[in-house]
Every structure is written in structure tokens, then in C-alpha cells.
Amino acid sequence: MQTRRQTLKHSAVVAGLLAGTGLFPRYALAFNQGAFDAKSIADAVKALGAAGAPAQSSAVTLTAPDIAENGAVVPLALASTLPNVKQLLLLVEKNPNVLVSVFNVNESVEPSFATRTKMGQSSDVYAVAITADGKAHYAKKEVKVTLGGCGG
Amino acid sequence: MADPMRIRAQASGDKATVRVLMSHEMESGQRKDASGKIVPAWHIQNVTASLNGKPVFSCEWGPAVSKNPFLQFTVKGAKAGDKISVTWKDNKGDTRTDEATVS
Known about the structure:
The complex is a heterodimer.
Chain A: H1 4-21, H2 33-37, H3 41-47, E1 55-56, E2 60-63, E3 67-68, E4 74-80, E5 85-92, E6 99-104, E7 109-117, E8 123-131, E9 136-145
Parallel strand pairs in A: 1-9, 3-9
Antiparallel strand pairs in A: 2-4, 4-7, 5-6, 5-8, 8-9
Chain B: E1 6-12, E2 15-21, E3 44-51, E4 54-61, E5 70-76, E6 83-90, E7 95-101
Antiparallel strand pairs in B: 1-2, 2-5, 3-4, 3-6, 6-7
């Protein structure tokens, strides 16, 4: 009989092994549950196969409001001018699960996307570009959420 | 089957900007209902798009994308009259595809 704690521990070990071997499925239509379960930005970026810590870069742009009146609908746009970008990620630092969205970049789309996001509270928002050589570059912006407020 | 998507694709030069509004609950899995039970997550996981049948775009979404999601992306090499089709798939296996013409 396995306790829940043991089961959780085992699945964490297996997930770690998979990530280590690079067999973690991270291609189109293979939903990357591990990355979307990540609780920190470093974990999420690592689960998507980036090597090393993300570096701040002016080649990545994040367009976000300074103040979001409604945390349920925060319009965010991200773009990158780096060559060989493989993926663009959108992350909200203080959400329960930080990863919002992964955009796969290929030669037929511009590395520039926009969507709307839920934010639980005021937080830093990160746009991360992962290049083909596994390096991660990011831009960040603080967004203040005034739920139920008059919007300042 | 969910409601249809609203897709707008506008060509400018050799690119087309595609804007999509999907109709989906995007339940986050964090909310509790009146009896204190957690409402299970129900959200779109994959969105893909193709231009004249050729896949051009894909993305993965977590539950933090807003309800009735909006998405904008730019396809290279698209011109007026081309067909853009967008497909989403959610974590309950439900899927929907809609098509629009680039104008």
C-alpha cells in the first residue's frame, strides 16, 4: 500500500528523470502538463527545455497595461526580434501556476502574439523567448490589478 | 459542441494578421462552488491554425488564459483570398474548427 505522499514523490522523481533525458514531450499537440504545473518561472522555463537561467534582453518586448482594472481580462502582447526563436512564453509570477501560454514559433508566423490573461493579484509579468540553442531571454513588466476598484 | 469562433484575417503586404475570439468557459480549477468543492479545470490546451491546409501556427494554453479567449498572430506569406482555419482542443477532448478567408 502506497501512501499519497509516496506516490507524489515517485511521480516527481519520474518527471525529473524524463526532463533530464530530454524525452519530455514538448511538441505541437503534446500538452506539456509539467510546465503548466510549475510554480516558479525558473521551473516552467526548465520544463520547456531551456538550458541555463533566463537573461533579460531588450530584443524581447512585452506590452501590458500598467494597471489592469479587471484581473480576469488582462490584455498582453509579446514579441521578439531575436533570430531562431523556438518558443515564446507568457508567465505571470504570482499566479498559482505561473505559465500562461506557450506559442510555438516557426518560419511561417511572426514571433509576435497577443492574448488575454487572468491574474490573481498584482504581479510581474514575464515574456520569455527560448531560442533554438536552448537559451532563454526575457522581458518583464509589473501589472497592478485593482479588482473591484475604480481603476485609479 | 461549443459556439463558433469569430475569426478575422486581414492582409497587409505579404503578411496577414489573424484575430480569433473563441467561446470557451476556461475554468481555472482554482474556484470553489457554493458547497466548497473545487470546480475542475476546463480549459483550451492547444490552438492550431493552418493556411490553405498547411499548418502554420500552434500554441499551448494553461488555465490562466481569460474566459472566451482572444488570440492574435501574424502569418507570413498570406494574401487576400487565402483560407485560414483555426482549431482548438480542450482538456476534456472537445474540439472545434472554424475557417475564415483572408481579406
